[in-house]
Design a protein that fits this description.
Layout: H1 6-15, E1 22-25, E2 44-47, E3 51-54, E4 77-83, H2 86-94, E5 100-103, E6 107-109, E7 114-115, H3 131-137, E8 141-144, E9 156-157, E10 170-174, E11 178-183, E12 186-192, H4 198-203, E13 209-211
Parallel strand pairs: 1-2, 1-5, 5-8, 6-9, 8-10, 12-13
Antiparallel strand pairs: 2-3, 3-4, 6-7, 10-11, 11-12
Keywords: Transferase
InterPro entries: 3-oxoacid_CoA-transf_B, CoA_trans_fam_I, CoA_transf_AS, NagB/RpiA_transferase-like
GO molecular function, one term: transferase activity
């Protein structure tokens, strides 16, 4: 079994973002997607701290301390990109102008509920931030996360045990083991990492699964 690395997960998700979409990348793993947008495809990346047209991470030594994403990581700006007020950024989100948001999560339920925030002082980005606005305002929400916790507990569940960020918001999940869609009858498998079997995936998933790879569309 060869689970995908975080870089491979980001590249896999980037492949699925269509040309012309406006996309917000949540704090954490989703920000890696910016480095893997296919060449020649125009995906306009948005950051809620007030950037549109965000590019990949800068080369080491060429960081601009004034140009950062919402997670305080240095980024670049594509030609034609822009900066604007925080309030204008959230007007874009709340106004339904973002085609896709990719968030990290602690748990995703089989009906699309998402739990992705915490209040622990040990967390690098405590509290909910803009995730509630993004989950409610973006046209689509995908999640990028490890399939299990560090101690092996499933993060794909029938019902979230953590406080919810949003209800029935998630449509697709990218983990280190699989790509899954949220369907009416549970999680539908669209792709598996090399060597991952259905039996193994079921053993680390606490919700119904079905293999939809043969019927998967674009």
């Amino acid at each position: 079994m060869q689970p995908w690395s975080r870089t491979q997960m980001a590249a896999r998700a980037a492949q699925d973002i269509p040309d012309g979409w406006y996309c917000n990348l949540g704090i954490g793993m989703p920000t890696l997607i910016a480095d893997h947008i296919p060449e020649g495809r125009e995906v306009v990346l948005h950051s809620e701290n007030g950037i549109l047209g965000m590019g990949p991470a800068p080369e080491k030594g060429k960081e601009d301390a004034w140009l950062i994403n919402a997670g305080k990581q240095p980024v670049t700006l594509h030609p034609g990109g822009s900066y604007f007020h925080h309030a204008d950024s959230f007007a874009m989100i709340r106004g339904g102008h973002i085609d896709l948001c990719v968030l990290g999560a602690f748990e995703v339920a089989s009906n699309g509920d998402i739990a992705n925030w915490a209040t622990s002082e040990n967390d690098s980005a405590p509290a909910v931030g803009g995730a509630m606005d993004l989950a409610a305002g973006a046209k689509r929400v995908w999640v990028m996360m490890e399939h299990t916790t560090k101690d092996g507990r499933p993060k794909l569940v029938e019902a979230c045990g953590y406080p919810l960020t949003a209800m029935r918001a998630v449509s697709r999940i990218y983990t280190n083991l699989a790509v899954l869609d949220v369907a009416e009858d549970g999680f539908a498998i669209r792709d598996l990492a090399p060597g991952v079997t259905l039996d193994h995936l079921r053993s680390v998933t606490a919700a119904p699964l079905r293999d939809a790879r043969e019927t998967a569309g674009a």
